[in-house]
From TrEMBL:
Chain intervals for the UniProt region annotation (Disordered): 1-31
Family matches, as InterPro entries: STK19-like
Annotated Polar residues bias: 1-11
Domain of life (superkingdom): Eukaryota
This protein's name: Serine/threonine-protein kinase 19
Family indicated by similarity: Belongs to the STK19 family.
Lineage, uppermost ranks: Eukaryota, Viridiplantae, Streptophyta, Embryophyta, Tracheophyta
Originating species: Crotalaria pallida (Smooth rattlebox)
Length: 266
């Protein structure tokens, strides 16, 4: 974990209301930085390129769809993610933004994210914040899947102390677990404070598809598209393009003048 690059500290420029260039001059073009040899390399580079978002305190995360856009063999991605998940290098999170949306976060980053939430609320809840220690030590360390059943959660937490309903409520309110809609006795593990970014993710997807769909051939040169500023998402164009290409909503084709991005036909 010591070799993971530090997040890029690109200067946060004021977002203009028009769609002018947004790519930092020091950032390599996505066209020259689209594919990687293996999943860990892709994860480290995307972590370093995670957009700097003022007033949002979220550690870098990567979407599984972004990995699919960057490592050609999806089976390889799934296999390597599974190995790193078992080795406790990272965690996977089921998102509520789409049927098969998953986020990937390095475990150290996730624990930092949880600690940040604890510091924010421990002044209000006092001793009840002990549940976060139990959660990290007994739940996260042994339960590596994306979800957990209520009884199992309580059983693991009880290894740290006597579990009360208020403890579970505190975990939910802190955003480290969320109830599954189809089964209220099941929870998804979650990334705290990520709500505004997930809203931006959905809106940004729609904005880019709409932008391309309004063009005559529903296509645009990648080099030009990645310089557009998004109005509806705090996440940058690079983040969204990797996601949309990996999820199959967009496709790229090589032309004599460079890569072209097209809306995938249904």
């Amino acid at each position: 974990m010591d070799n993971i690059p530090e997040p890029s500290s690109s200067k946060g420029t004021k977002r203009r209301r028009d769609e002018h260039e947004s790519t930092d001059a020091n950032t390599p073009s996505l066209e020259n930085d689209l594919t990687f040899s293996d999943t860990l390399v892709a994860l480290r580079i995307m972590r370093a390129q995670f957009p700097h978002i003022p007033k949002v305190s979220v550690e870098p995360f990567i979407l599984k769809s972004q990995l699919y856009s960057s490592v050609k063999d999806r089976t390889q991605v799934d296999r390597e993610l599974e190995t790193m998940r078992r080795d406790k290098v990272l965690r996977l999170f089921k998102l509520n933004t789409g049927q098969d949306d998953h986020a990937v976060m390095f475990l150290d980053d996730y624990l930092n994210q949880v600690d940040r939430v604890v510091k924010r609320i421990e002044g209000e809840k006092g001793g009840e914040c002990e549940v976060f220690g139990w959660f990290k030590t007994h739940v996260l360390d042994s339960k590596l899947e994306t979800g957990i059943e209520h009884q199992e959660l309580c059983s693991l937490l009880s290894l740290g102390g006597k579990v009360k309903d208020s403890h579970i409520s505190l975990l939910i309110n802190a955003g480290v677990i969320i109830r599954q809609l189809i089964d209220p006795n099941m929870y998804w593990f979650a990334i705290p404070s990520i709500g505004s970014l997930l809203k931006g993710l959905v809106q940004g997807r729609k904005e880019i598809i709409s932008l391309l769909s309004r063009r005559r051939y529903k296509e645009m040169m990648l080099a030009s598209l990645e310089k557009k500023l998004l109005r509806m998402s705090p996440l940058d164009m690079r983040f969204h393009l990797r996601d949309l290409i990996g999820s199959g909503h967009l496709r790229t084709d090589q032309t004599p003048t460079g890569l072209i991005v097209r809306v995938s036909k249904d």
